[in-house]
Amino acid sequence: MPGIGSISMFSVAVIIFALTPGPDMLYIATRSVTQGRIAGVCSALGVHAGVLVHTLAAALGLSALIASSAAAFSCIRYAGAAYLIYLGIKTLLCDAGRLEVSAYEPRKLKNIFNQGLITNLLNPKVILFFLAFLPQFVDPAKGNVSLQLVFLGFLMVGLTLPIDIAIGLLGGSVGALLQAGRGMQRTGKWFSASVFIFLGLSTALFGGRKA
Fold it and tell me: Closest Cα partner for 149 from 129, 164, 163?
């Protein structure tokens, strides 16, 4: 396990990153504002399930392998962009009233969870983040490097998941105030779709590796 000093610095850095607006925060907030608290929480859980998968991939060396292959990295990049744009178009074509998610519709909640998971897994910047960030806090002298990476990944989820759940709950409260009328529901649909398409285009245009 990494030393106490490394863990402390890692924890502070992770919390700062979690509080800095980014694609995941925007995705979760958009879901919660337009579809309610439960949708926001499910999105947060899906995103962080993706973080755990990235953690295991980094520990096994898969992330480094993907990042070193221009073809594989580009495939993930464009697949992620296409998926986000697909979600945006799907939202546009959906009736505004059907965006509402009931606590008694587990199938829809499962879909929202899976969408958050896939969105995170297909985000090339997350792969680069794990390759560039986590190793800085690993000390080979402290034991198995892979186990240290797994520990840091799980610690990251433990620190950031409550923040993203809070964002989901807060966004749901804001959304409940905004969506009182049918007109606001239509506005919410267009807003949600626009955000997804924007994130998709950003991933396609600016999600590549720096030279």
Answer: 129
Tokens of 205: 């245009």
Which segments of 83-170 are extended strands (E)?
A: none
Residue 47's closest CA among 68, 65, 30? 30
159 closest CA partner among 48, 33, 62, 1: 48
The model carries a pTM of: 0.75
Residue indicated by tokens 């267009």: 190
Residue 33 token pair? 């504002």
Q: What is the pLDDT of residues 145-204, one digit of tens each?
A: 888 888 999 999 999 999 999 999 988 777 766 665 545 556 666 777 777 788 778 767
Length of the chain: 211
| Gyration radius of the chain over CA positions | 18
